[in-house]
User: What shape does this take?
Amino acid sequence: MNRLSAQHLTCAYSKHTVLHDLSLAVQAGEVLALLGPNGAGKTTLLRTLARLLRPRAGNVLLAGDDIWRLRPRTAAQRLALAPQSESMTTPVTIEQAVALGRAPHRGWLLPYTARDRQVIEQALEQTGLQALRHRFITELSGGEQRRVILARALAQEPHVLLLDEPTTHLDLRYQAELLALIQRLAQQDGIAIVVTLHDLNHAALCATSVALLARGTLVALGSPADVLTPERLSQVYGVTVVVTPHPVYGTPMVAPVFTTSRASQNTVSQDFVEGRE
Amino acid sequence: MAARRFPEATPRRGRTACIPVLFGLLVLAIIVSVAVGAVVLPLPRVLRALLLPTAPGVEATDATIVWDIRFGRVLLAALLGTGLAVSGTALQGLFRNPLADPFVIGASSGAALGASLAIVTGIGPVSLAAFAGSLLAVAAAYSIAEIGGVVPATALLLAGAALNTFLSAIVSLVMLFNEQSAYAVLNWLLGGLSGRSWPHLWASLPYLAIGLGLIWLLSRPLDALAFGDETAQSLGLPLGWARVAIVAAASLTTAAAVSAGGTIGFVGLIAPHAARLLVGAEHARLIPASALLGALLLLLADDVARTILAPLELPAGVITAALGGPFFLYLLKTRQRDLGAQR
Assistant: This one.
């Protein structure tokens, strides 16, 4: 069964429709990347999947149950969201912040158990935050804040993990570590992951399938190799791109090519641009 | 953001010890407060009169001074300080705003209007009118901010600010047109415990107990709200219910405190901040620490208020503001980041 599926979703903010009749699904062990230009509706889709935004039409099913028929806490036991950023102005420690991920399981009153502590510990370890656990979250860099958000989502022990732009604000090393972690969480722990990404190459490296969005509609859905073609990307993003195989993994690697001033300065092989190689 | 780096992670253990220490200090402060006044009693006599008022060898006057005159007022001061501090903690948490205090959403101006009308017209008890006015004003701010079943925190803050201004204007008008009772109204507005004792304590205790207990039970939701409404929601918190519960509990606490002691300022703003510096921002510890600090603060302020110009009494609210203001400015200057005021 699909861990999470969207059926004919239509979403709108007041009168402005943001998503039109969009359907997709993700299964255990899969990584689905949501791609598309700014304003395509990626974050809106993720918020709808996360039960933060109620769709105008259509359903979000979490393991077959309509997510809006579940109690908020039940939904949070199965599904976790790691947003792009959040308020980090209260001086609590990293450990205290990550511990909140146990709230859906433990409730709002009962103290955390030894098992909760164990899960918190594991989340800190997976995100490399063990040594920083007593630091106040108000003292962290942008990248460290991102890791705290992810660690708290992992402490929820979700069946479905939603990640909003997890690689932005991270340096190259943490980008690579994060992509590897995403793959590991899907393959080893069997979590179904939905991730919005701006970097198409990140998507190609970690996703089992990608959904390309443009102006609120689904343009293409399939494996990275099938979806990330130069023609489709050029059309959707309005910029010329070349796609070559990754030298190590053979997955698609996308690079933009400037057709205006830069092209006349650097002599770009026209064959290459048109993908004739 | 230029993060200040600590090469060694600072363990925050040992900070929990603050709470028993504060409790010890409060007990000590209560005993000392009972001892001071027009007649200063030596501590052994205070203790004997407190613990064994009817025992042989305890002077009847000691027992009267301690039990009938001072102890009730001292306990009331501690209780009101607790109520204001905890209510401030809850509202700062709900609004994620370090400027929030128990009065931000209309509780003080509503109480002031209720009390001034009761004083001017002479109908009914002032404390009951203040209690009702306080709850009505918060309910009004809440329903004004509500649109389609949702109450955005910012809208509630703005509604409270506007309502405070509006109701204060009416209180000023009431005072202007009733010169003969203007002084009594002003005295109430400044806030204090002059002439308050057991009856006020018993009247406000049930509401304070309910409100304080409820806020403490809401510790973990308050922790979640610190990260933003959407994060709290995605952790499974029913946001609407949590907000109603926090506002209701904080308002009940504030209304009970204000009805007994008037609008005593600054305790509810400063105690939560000081507590946060001592034990961190996790509410399960912050709330007890803030409660104890609030109690200490108002108790000491009331001691100063009734002794510094004795036999004349100053309103305790003037003392809390006069001492609390500079202390807060000092904290702001030296510990800005820890207060969460910087970002």
Observations:
- Chain A touches chain B at residues 47, 50-52, 71-77, 80-81, 83, 86-93, 96-97, 100-101, 103-104, 108-109, 131-136, 138-142, 156 (CB under 8 Å).
- Residues 172-187 of chain A form the longest helix (16 residues).
- The radius of gyration of chain A is 20 Å.
